[in-house]
Amino acid sequence: MSRWSFVFRELGRDIRRHPGTALSAILSLTLLFVLFNMFWVAARSADDLYLSLVSNLQMEVFLPESVSDSAITRMSSDINAIQGVRSLRYITRDAAREELIRLVGVDLLAEDTLNPLPRSFVLTFEPEYLSIEKLAAIRQRLSDVSGSTQIQYGEKWLDTTEHTRGVIRRVGVIIGFFILLATLVSSTNNIRLMSRARAPELLQMQLLGAGRWFIALPFVIGGLLVSSVASVTSWIVIVYGRRQLDFVKITISLPQISEIVLFCATAAMLGAISGYYGVRRHLE
Amino acid sequence: MQGSAHTLVELHNVELKADRGTTVFKNLNLIVEPGASAIIAGPSGSGKSSLLDLITGRRFVAGGSVEVFGKIIQPRRKRLIRSIRKKIGGVGGPFGLVSSLKVSDNILLPLVIAGERPQAQKERLIKTLSELSLLSHASDYPSHLTRVQYTLAQVARATIANQPLILIDEPAAGLDQSTFAHVFEYLFKVAVSGRSMIIVCSEFPTQDLPRASRYRIVDGALV
To answer: Which one of B60, B79, B101 would you mutate to disrupt binding with A, by most A Cβ within 10 Å of its Cβ?
Structure first.
């Protein structure tokens, strides 16, 4: 029997002798990982929702009466040159009136002989410039462009949305940290209970000259296996849950496969570390 | 740190205190040369098992020194202690069988730890099991063995890797005279083959080992 086959046989024996402990370890870790994944998915979905809402954000630059057509052409090229501006559309008085009719349904200016609506530019932005600070900077540059009188965009809405997104992220990170901590403690404790039950046997192996890793490896591999199974199961639960929620109109965004694989690998590594820490007391 | 290269075990002016601070050993000296054995008797609580613990590095001296295979045992030298333990076989006391392993796996353990080839392990296992009449119990778990079979399995494990030193704690514990004689007969053969033993017991056995010295623990020293 080679050392490795002994290690794996020990692992098998451990699981066979304490199936309840192994199962409860897998179930409790699965539950913790499901919680963690739910916050991850919620934060990601909120992020995607925020981006889709913000991507439609427009800024309107109203032009004063005094601006001539030639000045509009010059302004147009000045605004286009501002970094972050994705598109620029010039709205004439007539176009503004048509837009008003489209929005309201009736021509409120039917009795007016003159169209009082101002001319304007409507701007959209590159995705990486859709933040409060960057839009404020763009607004500042637009103000510097001569002729612009009033600049409007959903500043307050953007502020609230961005703040909400920040809160979700911060809460997610804090909860995620505590869940990972609970995972480590729970996993280490399970291994500690299993190793405590085997303390006399571990001592006997030490007296025969068994090294730290020879004794610790079955527990390390055990921790790794339990965490791997729990993390994969937790994602199966999340994917199944998402399919069941197909009728909900909100888009639920899952992480990419590579991120899920990385998560499972990290969970497995944490399991291995907790396996080592669980048995550490018996290695001295 | 090197000790004497010519002795197997050398305890020099050893002082050992119990956890409560009472003195267990004071100026205890013992030398066991290769091929020689020592039989040490003492009443319960005299420190017989502690003496074996000092040799296996489970406990450490408060004064003096313990050299095993020419190397001084110290608390921080864990790697050295492990390598020394690989060369020591143990019977009785803390050297119990691993209850979750079959007899054959228990006996093979020193070879597995040493990284011996599986084929060589198998050959040695069959030879050892045959010599100790344990072949029919190879697949049993320790809890299914009789007291004598259990002791014989420990002896098998203590000798399978040709360990040059065998520590035996109360070999007669739980055995009647005839079964103890059977165990001792095998130990005699092992001693004849040139391996050393340190046997600790409450009373000296009636049998003797070749090149064996007898000591008694009196007031924390060997006389």
So the answer is: B101
The span from the CA of A1 to the CA of A27, in Å, is 33
Longest alpha-carbon distance in chain B: 50
Would you call A199 an interface residue with chain B, using a CB distance cutoff of 8 Å?
Answer: no
Task: Give me the residues paired with residue B68 across strands.
Answer: B9, B71
Q: Report the complex ipTM.
A: 0.87
Residue A209 contacts B where some CB pair is shorter than 8 Å: yes
Give ∠ CA B70-B204-B5 in degrees, rounded to 5.
Answer: 10
Please count the other Cβ atoms lying within 10 Å of the Cβ belonging to residue B2.
8
Q: Which two tokens stand for residue A26?
A: 């897998």
Q: What is the pLDDT along chain A (284 residues), one digit of tens a residue?
A: 788 888 888 888 888 888 888 888 899 999 999 999 998 898 888 888 888 888 888 898 888 878 887 888 888 888 888 999 999 999 988 888 888 888 888 877 777 777 888 888 999 999 888 888 888 899 888 888 756 668 888 888 888 888 888 888 888 889 888 988 888 888 888 888 888 888 888 889 999 999 888 999 999 999 999 999 999 999 999 999 988 887 777 788 889 999 999 999 999 999 999 999 989 888 77
The bridge status of strand A119-125 relative to strand A59-63 is antiparallel
User: Min CA distance, B207 vs chain A (Å)?
Assistant: 28
Angle at A142 between CA A139 and CA A145, to 5 degrees: 160
pTM of the model: 0.76
Where does chain A have alpha helices with state H? Answer: 3-17, 19-54, 69-80, 93-104, 132-144, 155-197, 199-207, 212-244, 257-279
Q: Mutation target for B interface from A7, A15, A204: give the one with most B CBs within 10 A.
A: A204
* Residue B179 to chain A, least CA–CA distance (Å): 25
> How do B212-218 and B196-201 pair as beta strands?
unpaired
